[in-house]
Write a structure and sequence with these properties.
The protein has 75 residues and is an alpha/beta fold. It is 41% helix and 20% strand. The protein has one domain.
Length: 75
């Protein structure tokens, strides 16, 4: 088994494709130490609702690091 790599930032397509191919996102945990998911990507995955393709696998992956958008300072 390959050694676990560092950090990776993902977008929507790989998450949905991996969920389609395997039914989960667990393989990411074994490949990378940290998987960063920008907030906008999380919203896009969940946009179709609870029963949308890939949403269940995404929500089950509580180890994903969903990063909230930075807030702009108020003038």
């Amino acid at each position: 088994m390959p050694e676990c790599q560092g950090t990776v930032v993902t977008n929507t397509t790989p998450l949905i494709a991996l969920a389609a191919a395997t039914g989960s996102l667990d393989v990411l945990r074994f490949l990378y130490r940290r998987i960063v998911v920008p907030f906008e990507v999380a919203e896009e995955v969940r946009a179709g609702g609870r029963h949308a393709f890939g949403t269940g696998a995404f929500d089950d992956a509580s180890w994903l690091d969903i990063v909230a958008p930075e807030k702009s300072p108020t003038p």
